[in-house]
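pinging the channel bc i need a second pair of eyes. not urgent but kinda urgent?? the chain im working w is below, pasted from the shared doc
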Amino acid sequence: MGKPVVYGADYSVYVRIVRLALEEKGVAYDLVPVDIFAEGGAPAWYGERHPFGRIPAFEHDGFRLFEASAIARYADEAFDGPALQPADARGRARMGQIIGMFDAYAYRAMVWDVAVERLEKETPDETLTAEGLRRAETVLRVLTSLKAQGPWLLGDQLTLADLHAAPMIGYFVKVSEGRDLLARFADIRDWYARVSVRASFARTDKVG
């Protein structure tokens, strides 16, 4: 099989999710830069890769995908390497629940309403940031209740749930309020300490 190609920007948590899955599988890939926030938006050719103009997009031996969750699942199932999804139906359901929770409730709150407001805005919207922190607290509380016994979110097996949650929390803890809030949830704090020192996490980290 040929080398897969990931289209997107290294600053994107969703691009990082896909890259983490490929790294954990031991799959070499090419990252083609696409900056959707550049002046004029994404290049015209990218519309053939992602009709909604988001990142990432993906291609492997002529097979094209968009949506990070779909790409990550494909990476797990199409390539050799350690399994990143539970073998049992309940485990896969819990994995999907955690991924869905982060997409629906954590991404906007942790990444945009807290981290981006604090890191990118000259005058952050304090009301927006406070609401983001409130919702992030709910996410961390619920994640604590869902986490299984063991080093990873689903127990002894590292799964796509870990790889989906880690980049969003990684962005969140770039700001002091994020670090302070995470510290209040010891199980999730310790989990993040473990996942954030994995080689895959270091190799996909955007410096700066």
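so Residues 17 and 164 are 6 Å apart (CA to CA). and The first strand starts at residue 5 and ends at 8. — does that match what u expected or am i reading it wrong
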